[in-house]
Write a structure and sequence with these properties.
single chain; 101 residues; mainly alpha; flat
């Protein structure tokens, strides 16, 4: 009896999910499509200098984000290396000291 209830509940859940997805995704696709069309038309209407400025600003922002990511990874690697060094020093000088027992 419980197995049938679970199956029925799962079936209803899938139906509700399909209904929600069928309503949300087309609207989202339309909004994204309209926004991208507006952005492309805005870019096409810019003068040549403006287009170069937009491309330059985009490159600058992209390289800035990439630089931040590289610094983050380098910091994480440095912290991991420091943690390993501290652990090794602890093991060598403190953990193997029989006189402290």
């Amino acid at each position: 009896m419980n197995n049938k209830d679970d199956r029925e509940l799962q079936r209803k859940l899938r139906q509700m999910e399909a209904k929600i997805n069928s309503q949300l995704w087309p609207e989202l696709k339309i909004k994204v499509s309209r926004m991208s069309e507006k952005l492309v038309s805005w870019y096409r209407e810019l003068p040549s200098v403006g287009k170069f400025a937009v491309i330059g600003a985009g490159l600058f922002m992209g390289l800035t984000v990439l630089n931040m990511f590289v610094h983050l990874v380098a910091s994480l690697v440095s912290m991991a290396f420091l943690a390993v060094l501290v652990y090794i020093v602890y093991k060598i000088f403190l953990a193997d000291n029989p006189s402290s027992n």
